[in-house]
Amino acid sequence: MLKLSDESLDLILRKARTHSDWLDKPVDDALLAQVYDLAKMGPTSANMCPMRLVFVKSKAAKEKLKPALSPPNVDKSMKAPVTAIIAMDVHFYEKLPELFPHVDAKAWFKDMPEGALEVQALRNGSLQGAYFMLAARSLGLDCGPMSGFDNAKVDAAFFAGTTVKSNFLCNLGHGDAAKLHPRGPRLSFAEACQIV
Q1: Model-level pTM?
Q2: 151/114 Cα distance (integer angstroms)
Q3: Cα 150 from chain centroid?
Q4: 39 CB-contact burial (10 Å; exposed 0-12 / middle 13-18 / buried 19+)
Q5: How far apart are CA 169 and CA 26, in angstroms?
Q6: 20-57: per-residue pLDDT in tens?
Q7: What is the 3-state secondary structure (H, E, C) of 41-73?
Q8: What are phi and psi for residue 182, nearest 5 degrees?
Q9: Contacts (Cβ under 8 Å, ≥6 apart) of 176
Q10: Which of the residues 125, 143, 172, 195 has the least number of beta carbons within 10 Å of its own beta carbon?
Q11: Separation of alpha carbons 88 and 102, rounded Å
């Protein structure tokens, strides 16, 4: 089986950092499309693909997002070339006839309570959000994922009248490596894992 090189593993995981400071370098829309086209290929349950993205780039869109941000996240998000709203469509099942056509998968979900649908969308949308960050890093962008924001305000500003809800935010661009703080520790295999 083919394995990624150490250089590739360093890029997407081992040396990947959460950036808060950004170089004044724009991110092209075509690159954002490439990131999505790579990220969308990661697996989800029943190929439900609930992730929906809004790339907040313009000054007007940034101002629309700003009131929803917690104070520590305002400056870094306003300075980031792009803030991606990683969201999820709670009614993902509407797309299942197209995405999972070999069975009637829509029937599995359409009568579920909204809360159960949200759990499915959150689980699989979070998977897709992680694929999204790996794809961004693979294509040369730095990431600054965060959850310090008011979901209800983001949803009202960007998803009013839809079945889409925000999950988390991720600033994108070219991070200023000179302003990174030391990497935090990670749990060891023995602390975090069991083999049974």
Answers
A1: 0.95
A2: 17
A3: 16
A4: buried
A5: 18
A6: 999 999 999 999 999 999 999 999 999 999 999 999 99
A7: CCCCHHHCCCEEEEEECCHHHHHHHHHHECHHH
A8: -60, 145
A9: 19, 21, 22, 23
A10: 195
A11: 23
